[in-house]
Amino acid sequence: MKSNFNQKNYITSQQPEQQWSLSSSRDLELGSLSIPVDRTSEQYLRICVQEKVSQGDYALAISLLNQLIALCPDNAANYNNRGLIYFRNNQIIEALCDLSLALEIDPYLDSAYNNRANCYAAQGELAEAIADYDLALDLNPANLRAWINQGITFRELGLYDLAIENFDIALIIGDALEERVYPERGRTYHLRGDWNCAVGDYQKGLAILATKPELARYRSKVESWLERLLYPLQSI
Predict the structure, then answer these.
(1) CA 123 remoteness from chain centre
(2) What is the C-alpha separation between 202 and 230, in angstroms, rounded?
(3) 3-class state of residue 143 by DSSP
(4) Are 153 and 184 contacting, i.e. CB atoms less than 8 angstroms apart?
(5) Of 109, 130, 173, 236, which shows the fewest CB atoms inside 10 Å?
(6) What fold is seen in the domain 1-140?
(7) Residues 176-230: tens digit of each pLDDT
(8) 10 Å Cβ neighbour count for 11?
């Protein structure tokens, strides 16, 4: 089944996350290092990858990960990370290859299942995506991204009740990613025809998004959803 999928609506495993060895170096600037650094070392390369991803320079990040994989060909996290960046760079086939390799090396890497599911969804292979989200959640029931992404996929399939259940569970797990959960649940209520619930969730999401300028593009999307609900004739 093909869908009008926009991969930016889905939530990839953020960088840095558990699959990154240097998760504590998120805000580390290379110029602040006061000790000599081997520019071919794993540590240096990982810092550079994180820096380039944060700058949106995916091509160079992939090149650096190629070097990391050459150094550590049996490290599943490196393939997962390169697959994630391929996905963000809209290189879906390459992403699928890397994520499948990551899972061959480490079949317990839940973030790789989430990322691969996003790739399947991008190709319109929604049943395969649902299956991979299930595997991610079997391994890690607290994987919020997998709950949210699977909810979006259920919605793409018109399974609104299942989608809302996913978003409800995500909110029960914790308050992280509420800026995504409320709008996506609101969109689901909207499509299901529960307009009061939709408006409430859109407004909650927008209130949180107002404090997150880095998500301005997503906020505009949510505002357009709310506008279509409140002023349907103007949106035609």
Answers:
(1) 16
(2) 11
(3) coil
(4) no
(5) 236
(6) 1.25.40
(7) 999 999 999 999 999 999 999 999 999 999 999 999 999 999 999 999 999 999 9
(8) 19
User: Rounded to whole angstroms, how far apart are CA atoms 46 and 22?
Assistant: 7
Which residues lie closer than 8 Å to 63 by C-beta, 6 or more apart? none
- Side chain identity at 208, as an amino acid letter? I
Place of tokens 């939709």: 198
Burial class (CB in 10 A: 0-12, 13-18, 19+), 159: middle
Contact 25, 50 (CB under 8 A): yes
Distance, CA of 131 to CA of 145 (rounded, Å): 15
Three-state SS at 171: helix
Residue 36: pLDDT band (50, 70, 90) is very low
Domain segments of the chain as ranges: 1-140, 165-236
Query: ∠ at Cα 130 (50, 100), nearest 5°?
Result: 50
Task: Name the residue among 95, 90, 81 with its Cα closest to residue 8.
Answer: 90
What's the rounded Cα separation, in Å, for the pair 87 and 147? 19
Quote the DSSP letter at residue 176: T
Half-sphere exposure of 84 (CA within 13 A, CB side): 28
